[in-house]
Structures are given as C-alpha cells and as structure tokens.
Amino acid sequence: MSVAAIVLVAAGAWLVQAPWFRIARVNVNVPLESPVTADDVLGAAGVARGLNLWLLNTGAIAHRIEAIPYVDVATIDRAQVPAPSVELNITLRRPTACIRAGDAVVTIDATARVLQTGCALAAAARIDAGAATVPAPGGTIADPDLSRLLADANILAAADLGIRTLGRDHWGGLEAVDVSGIRLRFGSDDDLAKKAALVAPVRAGVGPSRLIRSIDLRAPGTPIVVFR
User: Fold this and answer.
1) What contacts 60, CB < 8 A, 6 or more positions away?
2) Could you tell me which residues come within 8 angstroms of residue 19 by beta carbon, excluding any fewer than 6 positions away?
3) Which of 131, 143, 156, 192 is the most exposed place for a label (fewest CB within 10 A)?
4) pLDDT tens digits, residue range 187-203?
C-alpha cells in the first residue's frame, strides 16, 4: 500500500471517529393524536446518540420506520450545526374501513394495508371480505374483490345510506345492512349509485308506519320491499 493510500485510510478512520460528527440529539416529530408514538419511531429507526451523523443509511432507517403499520412516509433530516442532530418525521396512513374475514376484524387504509386489529372507526361500515386472508398489522390484504367492495362502500357512503355492514350474498351479489337493520340487496354493483339513489324514495313511499325488513334493488325498475 502506498503512503498516500495509508494516509487516506487513516484520515477516513479519523473522520469516522471525529467527535464533531457524533450525533448529539435525535428529534422525533409525530402528528397530534397519532397512534404512533415518538418511542415507536425512535425504536424502529435504531438511531442513537454517538453514531456518526454522515454514515447513517437514511434509506434503511426510513424503511424500518415505514414498517410501522400506521406510518405512510418517513423522512430523515440531518444537521451539523449547532450540533450534529437527526430529525425523524412521519406522515400517517388514514383508517378507511373495517374488514371482517372469518373471525378476524381489522382496520385498513385505502390501499388495504392492515393498520391494526379491531375496528378503529366506530361509525364505519364493516366490510365482509369472506375467506380473504388477513395478514398481521403492516401487511396488505391481497384480495381481488376487496378494492371493488371499498369502492362500493364509498358510493353508498356518498348516498348517505348509513351502511352498517357490506358484503356478498351466496350468488356474489352486493348486499348491505343499514343502521336501522334493513337489508339492501343490490345484486350487481354496476350502476350502484343509481340503485342507491332509489333507497330513500322507496322508504319515503312506504312511510314510517310499516317496518321494512329488506329492499331488493336487483331489478331497479321494480324494487321489491319485504316487511317485518
């Protein structure tokens, strides 16, 4: 090894150990009322005081933080002055729906990532995903029908139908139960918005004196009402 190479190696070793590059402070910023705590982020990041600021693998750190189920994007900012410091920032995933598959109930976001076990949305419709495999929090439900059910849930929410549960019947048709216990049979979810728009007029036409068990909208031109 040449003298120049030895000098470069020695200089590199010295820089790695140089005290003014050692992390003196790690700051963690989480949104207010976040289900993810600063300790969660710090533990996943694995960044500690005393490490060399400029030898951190920020990509790997972000990846570890983003493995936390509720975390969407993690960013890592480094600063040399006034003292070597690291700032860890996160944005959160938003709970979108509660999914039931077998005996499991989980909360997911819009990408079908499982955020937690149990339902975090008291007023949200529970979507019956049938026999879909539900991974642990942080995993994604890989069910081809789930994205369509989520889209259907959004349409019914926009129609303000107060849906409590949503799923498929024995023939694969879309079926929902509203908060008053009325079963809504939509059948094919093609033209679902048009079918959903018929629910309120049908209920208004029946009036409050008769209790409805179900409304069958599979043939939207001739809705069928079954009474209790």
Assistant:
1) none
2) none
3) 131
4) 998 899 999 999 999 99
Pairwise CA distance, residues 63 & 32, whole Å? 22
Can you tell me the distance from the alpha carbon of 146 to that of 132, in angstroms, rounded to the nearest whole number? 9
DSSP 172: S
CA 119 to chain centre: 12
Contact call for residues 215 and 225 (beta carbons, < 8 A): yes
Total count of domains within the chain: 2
- Domain with 192, as residue range(s), is 97-227
What pLDDT was estimated at residue 7? 46
Q: How far apart are the first and last CA of the chain?
A: 92
pLDDT interval class at 3 (50, 70, 90) = low
Last residue of a domain, one of 66, 92, 118: 92
Other CB atoms within a 10 A radius of the CB of residue 160 amount to 10
Among the candidates 67, 92, 117, a domain finishes at 92
| CA dist., res. 13 & res. 18, Å (int) | 9
What letter represents residue 15's amino acid?
L
| Most distant pair of Cα atoms in the chain: their distance | 98
Tracing tokens 């010295």 back to the chain, one arrives at 14
Q: Are residues 12 and 46 in the same domain?
A: yes
Residue 10 in this model has a pLDDT that exceeds 50? no
Cα distance between residue 167 and residue 130, in whole Å: 8
List the one residue out of 102, 99, 57, 107 whose CA is nearest residue 78: 57
